[in-house]
Amino acid sequence: MSTRIEEQTTMAETTTDHETIRRWVEDRGGVPATVEGTTSSADDVGVLRVDFPHGERNDELSTISWEDFFAKFDESGLAFLHEDKTSDGQLSRFCKFISRSSA
What we know:
The chain is α+β, with helices and mostly antiparallel strands. The chain contains two helices and seven strands; from the N terminus they run ββαβββαββ. The protein has helices spanning 18-27, 66-75; strands spanning 2-7, 10-15, 31-35, 48-51, 61-63, 78-83, 95-99. The strands form two sheets. It has a four-stranded antiparallel β-sheet. It has a three-stranded antiparallel β-sheet with strand order 4-3-5, covered by helices on one side. A hairpin with a 2-residue loop joins strand 1 and strand 2. The termini are close together. The model has no long low-confidence stretch (mean pLDDT 86).
């Protein structure tokens, strides 16, 4: 599933495709992550995030495997909203997780 949302001169896309998400994140030097302290059980990975460790490091994030990331992503019914380029043509790191029902 892929949807486009146009805002001003930038365009954001929404997808649930695992390979598209992985490629977008890795192309920007990002890694799958979870927010520490947000797990509800030993089997839960917690709140998902994308971490870009080459920038300013967020000490509250822990890197997780893509397998764990996508298991939680699908289980939570999420979609990935992301922007490829900024309004001035630079590679964008804008992304967020939204409910599939609102995608």
